[in-house]
Design brief:
The protein is 14% helix and 45% strand. By secondary structure, the chain is mainly beta. The chain has one domain: Porin.
């Protein structure tokens, strides 16, 4: 295990070495400023720009996140929104107040280079009702963001963490060997976990049409809290993203490298690799209506157990404008292909509806033979966001419902499932579930009040059964056989999950979303004959720049 961890660290260093080199090259070759990077991928931050980004008077494409500031700032001043009505000149305050409340900690502006450097942290303490241990999170790190010329931007961050988690998160880490969305941990003292992670990107925007990004981080496709297409649920990964904006079209090509923690490459390079390529074409049919077409391919790159050959990256999937399904079939390929649809309808400047539909397998001939065909693998999402609810400024309401059939995202070769770093690339519940999420947010000056309620039903698997929730298992080993009929959503051990979270935050500095938070969380899991409940309160001082999902 130690060898794998060291090998994985070597892989990360090999990735970041060219990233650092390219950054230096850009620094040395720059001459003007105004380039833009990305908006931080954080739901609290996106809730501030949501109303302006989805206004009827613009046709911004907002379904692929993190959003690029180069495109956003063509429609409105993002910095002004994120400052959230703070008025006055920060320079009228002394240096300490300016840095604490209004500015980045370090700012370098030479006229050729603009660079900000800030500490990042999460000092959180909590107490679980059924746990005598003191729970805490101790995160320290640094983030740097810069822009060079009218074309280049870059950002990088590093986090070091020591945490003692509540019971259900600790159980998850023991089972999957990862901290949710934050990588591989090692033991720390008696009950704690020690883990670190880094992210970074270089962004190149030669004009208002194209943007090229080479990075190590996360991506999200959709307009909801969850995504059934591609979410930021799993750990960071290296990627190349090409975004093209032409008239009413936005076309995104994403090429990514993932890790399979269940396999070794056999070549001394740690865990097995697999690759993913994604196309997403978003079309603004009307100022009120957008349609997005999605497709992806996941394939393993490590040594094949039958041929003994190492496949590597398949250049057949490099073509940015080709449909993957025909290519897959023409190659006689066993790869994992998914297609999907993303929809958004703006009912007004403050209300919009959204939805998704994902297809993993859809065998029409088999469906005609009976109901509940195994290869009728699909999922859907429906949701609505109300901004300025009841005409109360900054009061937001969002609710969405997602349903995914059994065995979706799984594959007959488990090394090609829709998984990275032992977590789903889509929904954290995997498959064979129904879930509703309702969120209410209200901002008043520097205060944020947020309440969230998740209600989910799913059919769980046991150690000796496979009803379709566990996407790590082979789908051709389904409980009723392969192929089989009579499958239905929630089959298996019927489980009810409720997650309730209420928190109040005070934003100290909007530049890093530094805030003081106080909250209470209750998670209840019901299975026949058993109830598992987690109830804890927490207080924290943090810089909230990314999403971390513990609501599963």
């Amino acid at each position: 295990m130690t060898e794998r961890k060291n090998a994985h660290k070597q892989n990360q260093e090999k990735f970041f070495s060219p990233l650092i080199l390219l950054s230096l090259i850009f620094l040395l070759s720059s001459h003007v400023i105004f380039a833009q990077g990305n908006l931080f991928l954080n739901n609290e931050i996106y809730s501030i720009v949501d109303k302006d980004a989805n206004a009827l008077n613009n046709e911004l494409h907002t379904s692929v996140k993190p959003l690029n500031l180069y495109f956003l700032n063509t429609k409105f001043n993002t910095d002004s929104l994120l400052n959230f009505n703070r008025t006055g000149d920060p320079k009228s305050y002394n240096l300490f107040i300016r840095k604490l409340r209004y500015e980045n900690l370090f700012i370098i502006d030479t006229g050729k280079l603009f660079l900000t450097i800030d500490p990042v942290f999460n000092f959180e303490f909590s107490k679980e009702k059924s746990n005598n241990r003191n729970l805490y999170n101790n995160t320290r790190g640094v983030t740097a963001r810069g822009k060079i010329g009218s074309e280049f931007a870059f950002e990088t961050s590093f986090y070091e963490n020591q945490s003692v988690f509540n019971n259900y998160i600790s159980n998850f880490i023991s089972l999957y060997r990862v901290v949710p969305g934050q990588g591989f941990p090692k033991g720390f003292k008696e009950y704690g976990k020690d883990y670190a992670y880094a992210s970074g990107l270089i962004s190149y925007s030669p004009n208002s049409t194209f943007n090229f990004q080479f990075g190590h981080g996360k991506n999200f496709i959709g307009d909801g809290y969850r995504s059934l297409l591609l979410s930021d649920n799993a750990f960071n990964y290296p990627y190349l993203k090409i975004t093209t904006n032409i008239w009413k079209f936005q076309y995104t090509n994403l090429f990514a490298s993932f890790l399979d923690l269940s396999s070794s490459s056999g070549f001394g390079y740690g865990w097995g690799k697999k690759f993913g390529t994604f196309h997403f074409l978003n079309i603004s049919l009307h100022k009120c209506f957008q349609v997005g077409l999605f497709e992806s391919i996941i394939w393993q790159s490590f040594e094949d157990s039958i041929s003994g050959k190492r496949r590597g990256f398949d250049v057949n999937y490099l073509n940015p404008v080709i449909f993957y399904r025909p290519v897959e079939y023409s190659l006689g390929s066993p790869d994992n292909a998914l297609i999907g649809l993303n929809l958004k309808f703006k009912a007004s400047n403050t209300v919009y509806f959204y939805g998704q539909f994902i297809i993993d397998d859809f065998d029409v001939a088999g469906m005609k033979k009976g109901k509940g065909y195994l290869l009728q693998k699909y999922g859907f999402q429906l949701g609505v966001k109300c901004l300025d609810l009841f005409k109360i400024k900054h009061l937001q309401f969002q609710t969405e419902f997602s349903q995914v059939q059994p065995y979706v995202y799984a594959h007959k070769d488990p090394h090609q499932n829709y998984v990275h770093y032992n977590q789903s690339l889509a929904h954290p519940l995997g498959a064979n579930f129904m879930e509703s999420v309702t969120i209410v947010r209200y901002r008043f000056r520097d205060f944020l009040v947020e309440a969230k309620f998740n209600y989910a039903l799913y059919g769980a698997d046991t150690a000796d059964s496979h009803w379709g929730k566990n996407i790590f298992k082979r789908d051709d080993l389904a409980q009723l056989g392969f192929p089989s009929w009579g499958n239905k959503v929630l089959q298996g051990v019927k489980t009810t999950l409720m997650y309730k979270d209420f928190r109040v935050s005070y934003v100290v500095n909007p530049k890093t979303n530094m805030n003081v938070s106080l909250g209470i969380t209750n998670r209840s899991l019901y299975v026949p004959g058993n109830k598992n409940e987690s109830y804890f309160v927490f207080v924290g001082l943090r810089t909230s720049l990314s999403n971390v999902y513990y609501d599963f």
